[in-house]
Amino acid sequence: MSRFTATLSASLAAAVVAAVPAAVLAPGAGATAYVLQKVTADDLGPSGPWLRLQDDPGNAGRPPGVQEVAPFADPVRFNGSLHLAVAPAAQAQQAQAAHYFNRRIPLSSIAAGSPSYDVYVRGWTSTPAAIPYGASLQLPLFCQGAFTTLSFQPQLATDSQGRTGAVADTWRHFVAGGSSQWSTSNAVASFGAGTDHALSDYVAACDAADDGVIGVIANAGRLGDAGQSVDTYVDNLAVNGTVYEFGVGKDAQGTIVVAGGANGKTAAAPRSGYVTFASPRGGPAYASVGTRLVFSRPGGLAVRDLTVTANGKPVTLTAGSGGTLSAVVTPSATTDLGPNATYRTPFTVAFKSASAKAVALTATLLAQGYQPLQPTSIHADTQLHP
Q1: Is the model's pLDDT at 29 over the cut of 50?
Q2: Which of 110, 224, 232, 341 has the fewest CB atoms lying closer than 10 Å?
């Protein structure tokens, strides 16, 4: 608890780094506007601004699990995530990353912004009983002058797609609003230690002049059973007007090469080439990848205008808005794109209409996100000339 109580003194300011707004999210009508703050491996450690379990002297003697910024791509920006894991042994009983504010924030203000986060549980390295619990979003705070930590309970919550609890091998987005269930670590107000209550109930009770939230924590624990293991990834923690976005600081790159030159001007029809997506050393790891091909031309395209093959097989083209044609191409076996690796899709395009206009090709990397084959921001473009 030493790190918690340190928030009462001016010394906490040295452990907190002011947010540098990198982008402002564009919410829908009535939603909270959040500032995006990137968190890299350099931000996680004893000097902060994010502290691991062992970085707080108050946790001395408590074996930490895995706490790291990892390459595993999140479902929003696909640039890495926070990895928290505990193993089925006497060691590594808890894993967490904690960020502390430089002042106390009223719980009512936190709740009004509807805290949210994304969580992924890797099934083959987690025990089944632990999977629904995933990783918890926690709020350390003072309530009626007493300290406690409120822990969001994902196993009791329904996510944005109507599913209850964390599940294996799927990113899930949880919005922890007023009706969501949170557990209190200590007895505060009228709430017993370890009991679950709606966030709105805590808001109503924790309203003394000096009450308030002093930070935000992503936490994975053993649930009191040393035989359980849980291997989780967390990202996009939205609390107090800020989205904390964990990432490795690098992105993949896409290129398209067409036979006869970069734009295929000197090649005979049909145009053959390949799309390559490369994740650099220290870059993100994308799961279950694919490629989306989008063709366009001034005046529009019809399905009858092109014949496309990819990975040596005919591709079914779908007509889209603005006269575009598109197709999703997947490898014959599930393929991941990791750091310092490439993923390539060979293609051939035959022109069936007598037009001299070039066709623009945009290729986008697809990967596992909230859904399979979710588009990322990684793409490449070229022109195909008849």
Answers
A1: no
A2: 224
DSSP-based three-state secondary structure for 200: helix
Question: Quick check: 184 and 148 in contact, CB under 8 A?
Answer: yes
DSSP 8-class letter at 254: E
Residues 6+ apart with CB under 8 A from 371: none
Q: Is the pLDDT of residue 127 over 50?
A: yes
Distance of alpha carbon 18 from alpha carbon 266, whole angstroms: 54
Q: What pLDDT is recorded for position 95?
A: 93
Give the list of residues 6+ apart from residue 206 with CB closer than 8 angstroms, or none. Answer: 107, 141, 142, 143, 144, 188, 189
Structure tokens at 15: 């452990």
Distance CA 133, CA 121 (A): 9
What is the end-to-end Cα distance of the chain in Å, rounded? 69
DSSP annotation string for 2-31? HHHHGGGSGGGGGG-------EE----TTP
Question: pTM for the complete prediction?
Answer: 0.87
Quick one: pLDDT band at residue 352, thresholds 50, 70, 90?
confident
169 DSSP assignment: T
Round the average pLDDT of the chain to a whole number and report it. Answer: 87
Could you give the CA distance from residue 239 to residue 116 in angstroms, rounded to a whole number?
A: 7
The closest of 51, 28, 386 to 214, measured between CA atoms, is 51
pLDDT surpassing 60 at residue 19: no
In contact, 264 and 383? CB cutoff 8 Å: yes
With contact defined as beta carbons under 8 Å apart, do 64 and 271 qualify?
A: no
Which of 237, 249, 220, 218 shows the shortest CA–CA distance to 64?
220
348 near 264, Cβ under 8 Å?
no
Structural contact between residues 35 and 241, judged by C-beta atoms closer than 8 angstroms: yes
Residue type, 19: A
- The alpha carbon of residue 186 and the mean position of all alpha carbons in its chain are separated, in whole angstroms, by 30
